[in-house]
Design brief:
Elements: H1 26-29, H2 33-47, E1 49-51, H3 52-59, H4 63-76, E2 80-85, E3 93-97, H5 99-111, E4 120-121, H6 122-131, H7 141-147, H8 155-167, E5 170-174, H9 181-192, E6 195-199, E7 201-204, E8 207-210, E9 233-237, E10 240-243, E11 255-257, E12 262-264, H10 267-270, E13 275-278, H11 288-301, E14 303-307, E15 313-317, E16 321-326, H12 336-341, E17 344-347, H13 353-367, H14 373-385, H15 395-410, H16 418-428
Parallel strand pairs: 4-7, 5-16, 5-17, 8-12, 10-13, 13-16
Antiparallel strand pairs: 1-3, 2-3, 6-9, 7-8, 11-12, 14-15
Helix pairs in contact: 2-4, 2-5, 3-4, 7-8, 8-9, 13-15, 14-16, 15-16
Length: 432
């Protein structure tokens, strides 16, 4: 079940909620004037001197009737002053923090050093997550077959993937390593298709939580060239976030930056609207039972509770397909009560001999190695039948990649000769 040339993902299109039009006044931002003023004084302080246009661009807010009102308030309180202009009009005015403003900036920075796009409110975030819920996505068997066209996948697995996407809940993949569990999980995200809106940050009780993460979120262009949406939101492909053995319980709660005094959203919050995969489940430093207990409420209620450093708990939507992928036996990891909460379970079996042959042939085509039936027969006899080795879906790709590398080293054509097969397999297989 190893990919060769992948099919194109479904087109990315965002259904823009009318709620997301650009705010026209302070009230429509969901923020108060003092909060915006605090953000502005930090921007000017950190930049030494900056223009009104740069302030508005940093905040991702309109200048007129929002940023200009905050600048007027700061000037009236003698926190900032105009020291020049880089062009014509108010947007070109250059601002500097006054000595009085410096004291104010230090006080604000001590509370939170966050500088960037103005956050949206938690209520706005909940409304948008609800409007683009993955539960609204529908796929057909044809959609799944199209997304997995480059894979050798049994029909029963195709049906399970389609069911997992349509229910928008959870998926438990288990089986021997090297048979394509991770590849299948990637296709789940492609089946979700489209794009969603993700905020740069949200605010709760005056605290800022950064949500947009360019390591995990892929921005895409606005449909139809729209430019009138609230720029505090970014149109991104539905996220696909993968964590492995490094996952710790504390990384599933808000991460408090003690220096800069703001939060980083946890993985599952960043995955809202997409897929969150826990790979190599059971190999984390935390016990599986503790990790599973963390998901009981989110899986059942579709909400999650995160804790501020003050001790206050906040309710966050949990709208994602969560995938557990493991090479270990389920009975050694989970109990029946937890498995009941997982909507779809599927064992990824070793490929059959016919499937292995087809995977091998496709990999030969992809790597431009002439397929030879005699070479495949030799490989199967010497390195599977005689040592009683199990077939794995990843073996053809790995063996052929090794073989082509050896051929380049020897300055020989990459063909399925017994010599090259022997050299590749002797370096690839290890007797355990």
């Amino acid at each position: 079940m190893v990919a060769t040339s992948r099919p194109q993902p479904r087109p990315a299109t965002a259904s823009l909620n009318p709620f997301l039009r650009e705010p026209q006044n302070i009230d429509e931002t969901g923020l108060d004037l003092s909060f915006i003023s605090d953000l502005i004084i930090k921007i000017i302080y950190f930049n030494s001197m900056t223009t009104a246009q740069a302030v508005a661009d940093t905040l991702c807010l309109p200048f007129f009737n929002i940023v200009d009102r905050a600048l007027t308030l700061l000037k009236r309180e003698e926190m900032i002053e105009v020291v020049g202009s880089s062009g014509f009009g108010e947007l070109a005015y250059q601002y500097l923090v006054t000595p009085k403003g410096s004291a104010r900036a230090h006080d604000v920075i001590n509370r939170s050093a966050y500088v960037g796009p103005a956050p949206v409110t938690l209520d706005a975030y909940k409304e948008v997550v609800k409007s683009q819920a993955i539960g609204n996505v529908r796929v057909t068997p044809q959609d799944v077959r199209r997304a997995t066209a480059d894979l050798i996948v049994p029909d029963e697995i195709i049906d399970v993937l389609g069911q997992a996407v349509t229910t928008g809940r959870s998926l438990f993949l288990y089986g021997e390593p090297g048979n394509g569990k991770t590849v299948l999980a990637e296709r789940v995200t492609e089946l979700l298709g489209g794009s969603i809106l993700i905020p740069h940050a949200i605010t709760v009780d005056g605290q800022v939580i950064k949500v947009l993460d360019l390591h995990n979120h892929l921005p895409v262009g606005l449909p139809g060239g729209k430019s009138d949406i609230d720029r505090r939101w970014v149109v991104c492909r539905r996220p696909y976030i993968v964590v492995g053995g490094e996952l710790m319980l504390q990384s599933l709660d808000l991460v408090w930056d003690n220096v800069n005094k703001f939060y980083e959203a946890p993985f599952q919050m960043k995955a809202n609207g997409g897929m969150f995969m826990i790979d190599d489940f059971g190999r984390q430093q935390v016990r599986p039972s503790e990790l599973l207990n963390r998901w009981i409420v989110p899986l059942e209620k579709r909400i999650d509770f995160l804790t501020l450093h003050t001790g206050k708990k906040i309710e966050i939507p949990f709208d994602q397909i969560i995938v557990f992928s493991t090479n270990l036996a389920p009975k050694d990891l989970v109990d029946e009560a937890f498995l009941r909460r997982i909507q779809c379970k599927v064992k990824i079996e070793n490929p059959t001999l016919d499937n292995y042959r087809e995977i091998f042939r496709r990999q030969c085509d992809a790597l431009e190695v002439p397929f030879a039936q005699n070479g495949l027969v030799y490989l199967l006899r010497e390195y599977y039948v005689k040592p009683k080795r199990e077939l794995r879906a990843c073996h053809p790709r790995d063996i052929l990649r090794t073989l082509t590398g050896i051929a380049r080293y020897l300055d020989q054509p990459a063909i399925l000769s017994t010599n090259l097969i022997d050299r590749a397999c002797r370096t690839y297989f290890v007797e355990l």
